[in-house]
Design goal:
It is a single chain. The chain is mainly α. Helices cover 60% and strands 4% of the residues. The protein has seven helices and two strands. The chain has a two-stranded antiparallel ribbon. The longest helix has 23 residues. It is elongated.
Length: 162
């Protein structure tokens, strides 16, 4: 898609929140959610699969729900009493045979779970590749660093996630 060219002062006057909000909520997140839905997954499912793959046997219901809660905007995380509501996500993945939970409560991804995670990953990568079309690595790095600085300037954590 061709986009119009504007004078630098016109671009500089644009509200960052409008553009980041449009990109984040409506285009990137919705695009990812559509692709995850093909596999019958939600973002909390996706996060769970990736964490279980990255640290087999290293997460329990409580530790993983606490880790994922800050990213959740779908009401999956914790209620006022801090009771885990990610249980439905965990239980769904266990019922599918994608995740196991041992006697100590530790999660491990199964072969089926890894296969599903990889299928979803490919769909998500297609969304990411489309978003990056026509944008060089240097431009992207500059953009991320500018956004990190803005986050830090406004009192947030501008560091990359662990």
């Amino acid at each position: 898609m061709t986009i119009k060219t504007y004078e630098p002062q016109t671009i500089a006057a644009q509200p960052i929140g409008a553009w980041t909000g449009e990109l984040f909520r409506r285009l990137v997140v919705d695009g990812l959610r559509v692709q995850l839905a093909v596999e019958g997954l939600t973002q909390p499912h996706w996060w769970t699969l990736n964490h279980a793959a990255g640290r087999p046997g290293g997460w329990t219901r409580t530790t993983l729900a606490e880790r994922l809660a800050p990213y959740d905007d779908q009401g999956t995380a914790f209620d006022a009493a801090f009771d885990a509501a990610f249980d439905a996500v965990f239980d769904d993945l266990i019922a599918r045979g994608w995740l196991t939970e041992d006697a100590d409560g530790a999660f491990t991804l199964t072969e089926e779970g890894e296969a599903g995670r990889l299928r979803a990953r490919e769909r998500n990568l297609a969304v990411s590749e489309r978003a990056h079309e026509g944008i060089g690595t240097e431009e992207f790095v500059t953009t991320i660093n500018v956004l990190r600085r803005m986050v830090a300037n406004l009192g947030g954590n501008g560091n990359l996630p662990d």
